[in-house]
Amino acid sequence: MPLQRLSNVTAELQEGVMKTRMQPIGNAWQKLPRIVRDLCAELGKDIELKMHGAETELDRQVLELVKDPLTHLVRNCADHGIESAAERIAASKPAKGTIRLAACHQGGHIIIEIADDGRGLDVARIRAKAIENGFAGEAELAAKSDAEICNFIFAPGFSTAARVTSISGRGVGMDVVRSNIEQIGGTVDLHSVRGAGAKFTIKIPLTLAIVSALVVESGGERFAIPQLSVLELVRASGSGEHRIERIKDTPVLRLRNKLLPLIHLKDVLRLGESDDGNGFIVVTQVGSQIFGIVVDGVFHTEEIVIKPMSSKLRHIAAFSGTTILGDGSVIMIVDPNGIAQALGRAAQVARDERPEQKDREVMETDDIVSLLVFRAGSHQPKAVPLSLVTRLEEIDCRKIEISDGRHLVQYRDQLMPLLRIDTQSDLKRDGAQPILVFSDRSRSMGLVVDEIVDIVEDRLNIEVSSDRPGVLGYAVIKGNATEIIDIGHFLPQAFSDWFRRRDAAAEPLSRSVLLVDDSPFFRDMLTPLIKAAGCQVVAVGSAAEALKALKSGKRFDLVVTDIEMPEMDGFDLAEALRSMPSTADLPVIAITAMVSPDAIERGRAVGFHDFVAKFDRAGLIAAIQEQGADIDRAA
Amino acid sequence: MTAMNDNPQVTEYLTFTTAGQIFGLPIERVQEVFRPARITRVPLAGAQIAGVLNLRGRIVTAIDMRSRLDLHARDQGIAPMAIGIESGAESFGLLVDALGEVLKLPDAEREANPVNLDRKLARVSAGVYRLDGQLLVVLDVDRVLDLGAEAAAGVTAD
């Protein structure tokens, strides 16, 4: 079997070559402690060099290229950055200065940081020097930020050192540092705080390095996914344990009791129709975000040498480079960061591709919203849109009063009711109790929580609607399935005049609703509610804005409007809609706090299709569904 | 614009045809000519990028000249020949329908672009020669490679 042996030999050979090519960055750092020690003696300073991540491996070629820039930066820190012991003590810093060197792999890059706790860059002196040496005019500099001015130190021939020493200050160096690093496709960032030190961050893409990659197939083409970000592989099949499910248009996978958002590589790369039947799911992690990339097939893993992306293709976020496989063919390397970006857009793309909706343009409402994530009752995180929350407060538990079985607290000269999400749990007896305060006009209520976890910026895509009262649905926020709390459920509990009805099961629809309400509170409260019922929502703050939205050519299936609004009220809006031919048949549902026979009579006259009390969420959903059914019948 | 060779009056051009039109490239910018094989198409790239290929271990970005010059050929297969060009540290291959001969043409005879020349062509053309029976459009290599916004326009939503 000579061929078999040859293949074994070449495999061993390749492995050996790879091993020798990858070296720990510590090899480039070996001489630095000595350099710093010598500098200390020469400059009469006391400096400690701390090194972290010396074991981080990188390509030998890259290592050679960053060695000199690194040495230069460390010398610079010691010479310019760290002050003399006397100066340091005067600035109430420890007499001993510190230079910190750190390296790590991060998202397909090698990050090297060189930081000192010295005096930081002198922006004023750099500015003066820039003018003196004719790098920029005074007016030009005035428009620049401090960070931009600091970047002048990378310009060729620029030095602010008052005197030239044997160590640095000759005006060559920083420009060479930058050009050396840029030569290998890297970047240098500088962050300086006057008096506290400077930090250089060198980011080298793995473009020269060798990585292990998973070779996958999608739409008949092969791609490489860097193994670094791959957590596991899951085989998906229509009948097996792991089945791709869709919540509306969003593909998801139930993986060990968690909801994993999925994205088809075919969709991201527009390689044709994706189908959920069979395939492999590459579970990928980018930062704290975990998601699955659905591919048609998985071949094998291969050590690949990443070749930089052609300058003509660098704008494509989905790819980070190209590589030549063992068989000589060129394939693209998928950038998991770019896929993660696409993930947020995927739902929209999927909707746009549905033929029956091609003719209409639905306004994008999946904008990023700030969500307040907290825990209350159970361990599962809960969230509300931050814009709904008026304040976060901590109240003294001893101030909580009980009246008629309800918890109350004095808050800003009023008695504010306190509500619990989980009515089983008791309130804390002593110490501070965190609460979320919700206010609308003069009324406030406090929602008792155990802990405020975080504020995150995310798309509010409610993926599963819930039949549990008080929970609108579930959304994946930062990789965790999170309950989206329906504040509308708790408001009526707080005040007797905010009544509540039995929840109606929300039936998924795909209609677009224009919501008109002058109160931002209700806009925020009703938007997720209507969304949870499966509609697209565009919320506007006045009748004038509503007319503008309707005239802009966007199509809406339904208008939900408040009646009491300044300037132009709901009745006027309905009349205006009836008078325009394009909107004459548009169903209008009125929401109002005052349901009087007179108002209903007037509403019928101007053409309201339905009247719903403002806090009757179930009624509103039912009305929307009823109108929706009419639309479907008419269509 | 076109770099000179030893004789300042004459420039050598490699001629090629794409969609029936004859073009010339200053020969000193041409690295080699080759038959493109196994082009990997790049999803999301603009139509002007035919894909990437492996040429003796180098990755070459193949530019579809029909699309780049906005000429619509009758047959839509991959063009059979490529002209290899180096720019910066990168290699490019211009995919063309057929290669012609190398012509030595006096600089003085080169005429400016006709004012009514197709805008897309005018942007990459450095002038026109009147040959016997046909017109040769001289291409400026750097401008041909400067896909700029046009390449990015191939990708929406990014």
Summarize the structure.
The complex is a heterodimer of chains A (635) and B (158). Chain A is of the alpha+beta class.
Give an overview of the whole structure.
The complex is a heterodimer of chains A (635) and B (158). Chain A has 635 residues and is of the alpha+beta class. Chain A folds into four domains: 19-204, Heat Shock Protein 90; 209-357, SH3 Domains (SH3 type barrels), CATH 2.30.30; 368-494, Beta Barrel (OB fold (Dihydrolipoamide Acetyltransferase, E2P)), CATH 2.40.50; 512-634, 3-Layer(aba) Sandwich (Rossmann fold), CATH 3.40.50. The relative contact order of chain A is 0.06. Chain B has 158 residues and is mainly beta. Chain B has one domain (10-147): Beta Barrel (OB fold (Dihydrolipoamide Acetyltransferase, E2P)). Helix content of chain B is 13%, strand content 43%. Chain B has helices spanning 65-68, 119-124, 141-145, 148-152; strands spanning 10-18, 21-26, 30-34, 49-55, 58-64, 81-87, 90-96, 98-106, 125-130, 135-139. Chain B is globular. Mean pLDDT of chain B is 82; it is low at 151-158. The chains are: A alpha+beta (635), B mainly beta (158). The A-B interface holds A 219, 221, 269-271, 307, 310-313, 315-319, 322, 324, 328-332, 345, 349 and B 38, 40-45, 49, 52-54, 57, 59, 61, 63, 88, 90, 145, 147, 151-152, 155, 157-158.
- What spatial form of chain A do the alpha-carbon principal axes imply? globular
Strand order of the largest sheet of chain A: 10-14-15-13-12-11
What structural class results from the helix and strand content of chain A? alpha+beta
Number of domains of chain B: 1
Side by side, the strands of the main sheet of chain B go: 8-1-2-10-9
CATH class categorisation of the largest domain in chain A: Alpha Beta
Q: Label the CATH architecture of chain B.
A: Beta Barrel
Structural class of chain B: mainly beta
**What string gives the helices and strands of chain B in order?**
EEEEEHEEEHEEHH
CATH topology name of chain B: OB fold (Dihydrolipoamide Acetyltransferase, E2P)
Return Rg of chain A in Å: 31 Å
